[in-house]
Amino acid sequence: MSRFDSYFLMKPSDVIEYISEKMPAFKKEHQLTCTEIGDGNLNYVFRVVDETDGASIIVKQAGDTARISDEFKLSANRIRNESNILALQAKLAPGLVPKVFLYDDKMKCCIMEDLSNHVILRTALLKFQVFPNLADDLSTFLVQTLLMTSDIVMNHKVKKEQVKAFINPELCEITEDLVYSEPFNDYQNRNILLPENKAWIEKHIYQDKKLRLEAAKLKFDFMTNSQALVHGDLHTGSIFVRHDSTKVIDPEFAFYGPMGYDIGNIVANLIFAWTNAAFTLSEGASKPWFTDWLEETITQVIDLFSEKFLAGWKTNAAEIMAKEEGLDHWYLETVMNDTAGIAGLEMIRRIVGIAKVSDITSIENIKLRVKAERFCLQTAKTLIINRQNYKCGNDIIKLIKDNFMKC
């Protein structure tokens, strides 16, 4: 009998014993150390290192409440979904997700590749670092995981079975509340507003009926459009990078939903990085160098996705009606509409809602932060209300640059 035959929430000392038992390469007689490294909203993440040879591994365990708040009661079974999805994504987009070595259903944890030789993209962008392959890697990941899990390519019966297998009601409810509902009405009194922007937000967000109607339309699309297997939380904190590698992590929110949800989240979080640089970097050689790269990256994420999506459709479409002339371009246009709208939703919820981003909260000058928040919120409103106008990367870049000039 092992004490790991029954679930309990592990501490670092438990993880060392656990790894010694589950992973033969990491033996008790070796000098193992364990550090909790996770700072996410949901799970517990540990790094185990064998100090004798430097080998390392990651253990990720699910608790039965979200770390962000005990109000969110969750099934620890979500880690099973994450492990299965990482395995599927590894087949669809090789090299762009971490390797999974073991999933343990009893302890509700996953043992996976250590990415300590990478950095979290959000952290790197806040240090104004650039990654030349980022847009190419992300657009490939998006096309391969979205197009290839859709009705365009998959057998309809197989796809419906996959929809059933990856249904994720608890975490979808969190998204439905935190992204699509609370930022527009604070109906659960959980929003956190910068005092200096409170009155502005109440007037321009809570009281904007047109904005709220468009957000409601997008919410119902999120709840009913089982288009593809989306990552569900694809922001710059869910991506590890180095100059020659990109790894997408943490697909625990994954479910079958609108493709634009993943693309829009990426775009929004890259805009947050652009906002931080635009408002905090003093004028000089480094500012246009970094913001120009971000503008090109945002543009290329969208435009390379479109290019690869159409090429992938042509090569892989199996549904007979998907081969009708013009359907691919019509379908892509609907995805781009969703992308713009969801980018706006993500930008609003990260400023108005409970889950902030350091791109904005780290702006120490309060006058600049007030301006940065209003810039993001105004940009977001336009993306949501006029989402049909944003069909390519340059459309979004023009919007953010025009709005910045008005600040």
Question: Can you walk me through this structure?
Answer:
The protein contains 15 helices and twelve strands. The protein is an alpha+beta fold and 407 residues long. It has two domains: 1-74, no CATH class; 119-405, Aminoglycoside 3'-phosphotransferase, Chain: A, domain 2 (Alpha-Beta Complex), CATH 3.90.1200. The chain has a five-stranded antiparallel β-sheet, with helices on both faces. A three-stranded antiparallel β-sheet has the order 8-10-11. Helix 10 packs antiparallel against helix 14 (366-385). The longest helix is centred in the C-terminal third of the chain and has 31 residues, at 286-316. The radius of gyration is 21 Å and the shape is globular. It starts with 11 loop residues before the first helix and ends with a helix. Residues 33-278 form the Aminoglycoside phosphotransferase domain. Keywords: ATP-binding, Kinase, Nucleotide-binding, Transferase. It comes from Peribacillus saganii.
